[in-house]
């Protein structure tokens, strides 16, 4: 079993969080570990390799979190994510894919988009995953 608290403290210490003066004291901060057993429904999809064909097996419950909850916007997300991402993403989806954002939103939920520059990479990942364009055409579109 991993020693989560030890790993967290060591990582914080290695990147310079060694005292309250720098914002965090790795040796005295509180480390919370909230790892729970995987949901039986997800486990069945992931570990069904004993009873299912390979193409029927799911990918698990991996996820990414980006940012934090705040009262800066009605959506409780940071202003920079709410203000910049949607319109740029809508335009890029229509321009590169020729399809509206709503048609790929399910794919986008699986991809963390941090900065506006990353939007092209996210859309390119979706295009490649869905095999909507050849790699040659995709490379040219992303370079534009």
UniProtKB/TrEMBL annotation:
The keyword Metal-binding applies. The keyword Transit peptide does not apply. GO terms for biological process: S-adenosylmethionine biosynthetic process. SUPFAM superfamilies: S-adenosylmethionine synthetase. Keywords: Metal-binding. GO terms for molecular function: ATP binding; metal ion binding; methionine adenosyltransferase activity. It comes from the Eukaryota. This is Uncharacterized protein.
